[in-house]
Design a protein that fits this description.
It contains ten helices and 18 strands. It is α+β, with helices and mostly antiparallel strands and about 525 residues long. The strands form five sheets. Strands 1, 2, 5, 6, 7, 8 and 9 form a seven-stranded mixed sheet that branches. The chain is flat, with a radius of gyration of 55 Å. The N and C termini lie far apart (about 115 Å).
């Protein structure tokens, strides 16, 4: 180490020092960025009239690879596995430029813009095999470019109008064929686009300053003007400003004199005025309340009749499985309405408590008075009848009721008392000449004896019962003992109960019954009680 140290120091002293930074180095322009050719897209803007845009999708190695959210570069297999929504794609966009020459007869103004991606993104975009597996990849890359153009330039391009230009790979390039990309350079100053005729727009010439105009100008002519009022007009106070017919300057409006003239004509034609104090409305309201009261009474009567039908319809079927009480399946939903019992009721004003008035507005908007004959719906507004006539107490010597009071009911005579007593005992006499009521005996439903057949099998007895009026075994009760079988039918079947004596002892717990809709028969199988058990 001691021998090599002088040699190292000598080499360091002989290395040339870098030149100090000076004004010339600070002002040196940055080298241009040469882009790689990718592909070209064509799109139309959404403005009116639309303009045509060419998007040169270029590539350069200085653009970073797309990254996953973990910060690692992605690959082809990673995109196929995780998709395109979980990665960050860096890219850059150059300044847009207007094409120099427009073709004859063209209807659109044409612009170009360069968009630079990583070579990996452009390679996958041009790979048909990859894009067939990942069909969302190409629309994803195109939307990245369109969104950046809308954010930076303020031009919205229609996604549906994007097409691939197959005749060229780069629009408005350099070279003989125009296929070499332009250099990616920064524009001087505050410029944001290239000029239409020159390569780079030069400094703009300042606009000529206009002379300041006065805020208020006097437009009065120089000569004497004609006075607005004639001389002595205000001193003649006795004269009339207008003649007998009045001023003819105005125009009489169409709805003059209409109390609803303030409302627009179309709305006035489609509107109808209804006053709650009008006799027509009050009559309709009384009819509505009477109909509503009648409907409520009918509904209450119907509910009282149908209240207990639910319990009858849920009657337990004797053919169901005999399970102990409390084993029923709970309902899916259970609602507790007890909390609503503590909510106080809101007292609403009664119909007769509104302020009374003796006028109303008809359907044409005219104000009318309520006639006395139409005020019977408001008994509170009528004048109560007096209890005593004027001068009644002064005429005290005259009888109070000369012919007797007619307010009370006359006492019944002896014949009426006997007739009422006979009605209570159920022996009311009929008036002479009146037709007597014909007594009608209640109709008794005739029930027939069901036909049955008892067959003896090898190990059981078979009972066949014909029930032509039954559709199912619902409401049919079967009771079997060792020596007897009993069947009870519903009233709709019109069949008498059946009692059958069995020739042999059977096992009641093993009895089986079934119903056949085709033959309308009940088949009861009664296993025999063998001595062997």
């Amino acid at each position: 180490l001691a021998q090599a140290l002088p040699e190292l120091l000598g080499l360091a002293l002989q290395r040339p020092r870098p030149p100090a930074p000076g004004p010339a180095m600070e002002m040196a322009p940055a080298p241009p960025l040469v882009l790689g050719v990718g592909f070209c897209l064509q799109a139309d803007s959404c403005s009116t009239p639309p303009s045509r845009w060419f998007l040169n999708m270029c590539k350069h190695r200085m653009i970073d690879m797309p990254l996953a959210y973990s910060g690692k570069p992605v690959s082809r297999d990673w995109i196929l596995t995780h998709g395109i929504g979980n990665m960050k794609v860096p890219f850059d966009m150059g300044s847009f430029r207007k094409l120099k020459v427009r073709a004859e007869g063209a209807k659109h103004t044409t612009f170009c813009v360069d968009i630079v991606f990583s070579p990996f993104i452009v390679q996958l975009f041009m790979d048909d095999d990859f894009c067939n597996k990942m069909q969302q990849y190409r629309p994803f890359v195109i939307n990245l470019a369109l969104n950046r153009i809308e954010e930076c330039i303020g031009v919205k391009l229609a996604t549906s109008s994007v097409t691939l230009v197959k005749s060229l790979r780069y629009k408005d390039g350099e070279g003989g064929d125009g296929g070499r990309p332009r250099d990616f350079t920064e524009l001087p100053g505050d410029m944001d686009s290239l000029a239409s005729d020159e390569g780079i727009r030069g400094p703009s010439t300042p606009a000529r300053a206009e002379e300041p105009q006065p805020l208020i100008q006097d437009l009065t002519p120089a000569g004497p003007s004609k006075p607005a009022l004639r001389k002595g007009f205000l001193n003649k106070g006795g004269g009339k400003l207008y003649g007998e017919e009045g001023s003819r300057e105005g125009v009489l409006p169409e709805n003059a004199g209409d109390p609803m003239g303030w409302m627009p004509k179309k709305l006035r034609q489609n509107s109808k005025i209804i006053d709650c104090n009008s006799p027509e409305y009050q009559q309709q309201e009384r009819q509505r309340q009477a109909a509503e009261e009648s409907n409520n009474m009918k509904k209450e009567f119907k509910d009282s009749i149908l209240n207990d039908l639910g319990a009858w319809s849920k009657r337990r079927d004797c053919w169901n499985e005999d399970t102990p009480d409390g084993t029923d399946q709970p309902s899916k939903y259970s609602a507790d309405y007890s909390r609503f019992g503590s909510i106080p009721d809101v007292e609403e004003p009664k119909p007769g408590q509104e302020a009374s008035r003796d006028w109303y507005v008809d359907s044409t908007g005219q104000c009318r008075r309520v006639e006395q004959s139409t005020t019977n719906s408001r008994p509170a507004a009528q004048t109560p009848a007096r209890g005593l006539k004027p001068g009644f107490l002064e005429a005290s010597k005259t009888p109070l009721y000369p012919e007797g009071s007619v307010e009370g009911k006359a006492p019944p005579d002896e014949a009426e008392l006997l007739r009422g007593l006979g009605g209570l005992l159920g022996k009311e006499d009929q008036a002479p000449g009146s037709q007597g009521l014909t007594s009608v005996a209640p109709k008794v439903v005739q029930r027939s004896v069901p036909e049955f057949k008892l067959n003896e099998l090898s190990d059981a007895l078979q009972l066949l019962v014909d029930v032509p009026s039954l559709d199912s075994m619902a409401d049919v009760n079967l009771d079997v003992t060792e020596r007897q079988a009993s069947l009870d039918f519903p009233s709709t079947a019109r069949l008498q109960p059946l009692r059958v004596e069995l020739p042999s002892a059977v096992v009641p717990s093993r009895v089986r019954a079934k119903f056949s809709k085709k033959t309308r028969q009940i088949t009861v199988t009664l296993p025999l009680n063998s001595p062997d058990g």
